[in-house]
Amino acid sequence: MTTTLFRGVIRTGAGDTHTLAVRDGRVLALGTAALGLDADEVVELGGGLLLPAFGDGHAHPLFGGLEHFGPQVKGLTTVAEIVAEVGRWAAEHPDEEWIVGASYDPTLVPDGEFDARWLDGAVADRPVVLRAYDYHTVWCNTEALRRAGVTAETPQPRLGWIVRRPDGSALGTLREWHACDLVLDRVPGRPVDELVDALRVAGSAYASAGLTWVQDAWVEPEMVPAYVEAARRGALLFRADLAFRADPDRWRDQRAEFVTARARVAAEGGPLLSARTVKFFADGVIEGGTAAMLAPYCDAPHSCGMPVWPPAALAEAVAAFDADGFRVHIHAIGDAGVRTALDAIEAAVSTNPARDRRPVIAHVQLVDPADLDRFARLGVIANFEPLWAQLDPLQTELSIPRVGAERADRQYPMRTLVDSGAPVSFGSDWPVSSHQPLEGIQVAVTRRTFEGVPVDGWMPHERLTVDQALDAYTGGVAYQAFADDRRVLEVGSAADLVWLSADPRVVDAMELRRIVVEGTWLAGTRTH
Ligand SMILES: [Zn+2]
């Protein structure tokens, strides 16, 4: 058994100390009690800071890892570049029948309406399907539409939208579940080996960002074998909890499936893996006009968005999965979506026997003022993706025109909720946005873009202090994970640690994201 001693500035989450000793994956001693210990290894922190490792309260590791293996369209800034990359990748992979990639920037063309014919210019004889970075939209070529049987006669699905040309034919852009699934359901499943490789890629990305725990916020039971296999092979570099996605059309059948999958993960997933959560989508996204709103969208006065569940059905399903012992994790973005999610949780809490639940509402973009204090009252964790709280083109081009100035100026009420006493955790929604916690922390603290816009911060009263932002990305996520031994560093805590090159509390707020992650330890083992 080796003992590692850390010396320097250590932020435990309950004050600072100068020495920390780790043995057998746990914190052995802190402060002066650690000084006299015989260490096998000493880590001098220099001018840096050691703190509990970051966790990601909402992300998609498998999707993120898989992006690595298809055409590299992420970050490309023109349609021509994307099409060229798809062509290059297709030529290099002549045996891949389907060309599947992610994730392109949907703001590159007006209204995010991408034409199948642009992709046909690169690949016409094989199906191509690309996901937009919101993962609520796909862009595909004509061959993919043909294989999916999508024609001018295909009716609009209940939850989703086929964008059409004036002559009625499908343009090549499909929005939300049932439309995307018309094509995605045709894509052959990937072999387990490939999925394990994707988790390996995700693991190195997380480790290098200082993360040791992730809530995978969208798992279908067929993804479970990849996680179990990665854990078995020692290819999993992070702890993960899997959240199974409840489907409004077949959630009653899913109850038994999820219980079986949870048991399999518990039996075979090893110490890093659990599957204790069920994920619900209350609504879509504001930029797509699908988030559920209490009042109509400004640009579509007839529409209040696209709730995924009728409220009563969501409440019934949440109560049922809660009764099955699952944790509840609800995607809610519009103010009606958030209210419906809170109502469903409140109903489950009052119907089912009392227990420690820690339910999560993820994203929390727009909250009606009447609902703000319900988070604290019901003990609902508000999981924010802090990187989103900036005045970027997604806001200025897509979201603000849809919701109007009054609602726009109430988005991501992080400080309000922290001050209300609500539990708050952070996440990235990677690969929707960057998985780097320090980037999110910078935005949470400044509410400015990386270019510094606006100078005083967007809704500056919603800025967090550096400590509050660090807490949300460390102890806040550990609370969400029910990992009470990772919320602060004390004797007996799990030795999940991150070593930063500088102390964020003394760095210029606009430079926070430049702090380097020098090291990451998972249960005392260095992963980065
Ligand atoms: Zn997500």
Features:
528 residues, alpha/beta, eight-stranded parallel β-sheet, seven-stranded mixed β-sheet, 17 helices, binds zinc ion
Rg over alpha carbons:
23 Å
Q: Tell me about the biggest sheet?
A: 8 strands, parallel
Content-based structural category: alpha/beta
The best one-word shape is: globular
Query: How widely separated are the two ends?
Result: 20 Å
The tally of strands reads 20
Number of helices: 17
The strands making up the biggest β-sheet line up spatially as: 5-11-12-13-14-15-16-17
The low-confidence parts are none
What this model shows, in words?
- The protein is of the alpha/beta class and 528 residues long.
- The protein is built from 17 helices and 20 strands.
- An eight-stranded parallel beta sheet has the order 5-11-12-13-14-15-16-17. The protein has a seven-stranded mixed beta sheet with strand order 3-2-1-4-18-19-20. Strands 6-7-8-10-9 form a five-stranded mixed beta sheet, sandwiched between helices.
- Helix 10 (311-323) links the parallel strand 13 and strand 14.
- Helix 10 packs across helix 11.
- It is globular.
- The mean pLDDT is 96.
- Bound molecules: zinc ion.
Summary, kept brief:
By secondary structure, this protein is an alpha/beta fold. About 30% of the residues lie in helices and about 25% in strands. It contains 17 helices and 20 strands.
